[in-house]
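Q: I have two molecules that I believe assemble together. Could you output structure tokens for the complex as a whole instead of separate predictions?
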Amino acid sequence: MTGVARGDEGRRGPRRPGGAAVGAAAAGRRAILAWWLASRAVVLAAVAAAQASGILRHGWHASFLAHPFTLLTWWDSRWYRIVASGGYLPIPGRFSDPAFFPLLPLAEHALAAAGAPPTAGAVVLANGGFLLGLLALYELGRHYLPEPDARRAAVYLAVFPMSFVFSMAYPEGIVLPLCAGAGLLALRDRWLAAAACVAAATLARPQGLLLALPLAAIARRAWPRLGAAARGRALAAVLAGPAALASFSAYLWYAASDPLAWTTAEQAWGRSFAPGGLYRALAALATATRHHHAWLYRDAAFCLLDLVLLGAARAAGVPGAWVLAGAATVLMPLASGSFTSDARFGLLALPVFWGLAAAGRRRLLHRLLVPASIALLAAGAFTIPLRFP
Amino acid sequence: MRTTLALALALAAAIAAAAFALQTTLPLPGPGARLAAHVVGRLERLARVDTLIRLPGGRTVAGRCAAAGHGDRIRLPDGRVLLVAGTHVRLAAGPRQAPSTTALEADLALCPVLLANELTADLLAGGPVEAAARRIRGRPALLVRAGTRPELVLAVRRPSLDPLALAVRDHGLVARSRVVAIRVRRRAAAVAAGPIG
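A: Yes, here they are, computed for all two components at once.
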């Protein structure tokens, strides 16, 4: 695999509209496409190998030939299917579906209505969305960092150990392009399109709300040169996340008589936002081995890594609002009392990968990072049956 | 500035309205599923249920099922004790019976956790769950019909949703039970419903 530039040479792509920059951007996109293909091949191979190897839990009898990539539709994918087929139904005291945001179920429902298999369609959507997300991350990164850094950030995300989630029937593959796209569109003063991206991202994952931070910073910077109408649209883009969340609450009120069902349902999974949430998360981590929750260390390790990389991103010149949104993406779930799945949540903290790209300017580190990430990506996909991401 | 703010709020409202409209394309659970979910919530709060069980063949036994940890414990008059975990039932003490009889008795003992687990499983599986309004012994009641093998028909009191009676249909056989007394979990709200009918 070629095309990953190193070093901090070169200036920021979009500020240099010359032929060289255009050529570099085109080469960057081709490299990202190649890395996306390669990384997804690794994920598919690992998932197929896991099913063929027989490590699946006792009681699983689907044949490899019948469903070679069935692991991509495991765990939370089932909950999104339940919403898509039956709608939201809170069940007091039990695991129930209002904990899962509606964008992916809406897509699956539309696929089913069009005659397409909804779960397989969701996997295709997630993988396609991931490619768009990588390209959008690259374009956005070029606004803040030199082109080689932006390119490396996208490549590192493609092969990041937890990035197998982007191939599952989970919303992350759809949210990534929306998050990066919102920032990119805002930088280009296309505020209404940015607002639509923010709203859609929030309907897919609550972390979409945090896009208000970088968008507010972009709007603030652009404010003096915007007219009254453009200012209104910019402000609407900042408010789009809360508006979308309000619409979800209103829908749950209409459909399930409980506007807060999405947060109530989380309690069945042991999540509830409370002042002592961080303490509970740390206490759970301290006793994880005793309670056979050793996988929690994976989430805690990624949380720590994410925070370090956010610091690296800030040091590399990434705007503070993006870093702050990234930090909130990683840290806010801990306030609900658990590190569980924080490794997955961190995938949407875009500056993490800009920080990793800045670290990867060192030739040796870059040479270690890529193969190590690919190996861990394969391991992560292979162990999907053992632990949900 | 006022124009800017007004435009921003109008656009944000339009975004919320469009998002709401989009969500209305999702299916809505039927009245049976919604009632069953509420019944699960009520069952979660029960600490003990005493029943009179009429087995196929006409034999009648008294059952007492009490919540025990995350499951239920059933005591039957012949000395048997059944433990329920999830939707699995095992004999903990007393003479052995056929597994199918044990499972049937566990259902008919109207164990709160077992019944809640079975209803939840049916709801999540997306199978048909139906509701109907009835009067049972002159009192307003609701029927919840769920599952296919076995099919459960649970009668609950209106509006409290306390269980009244259960019918289990499997392979053409029908067995029934009715609730004699219940006790709710919270000590302060402990209520003995008393004999019914």
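A: One point stands out. Chain A has 16 helices and no strands.
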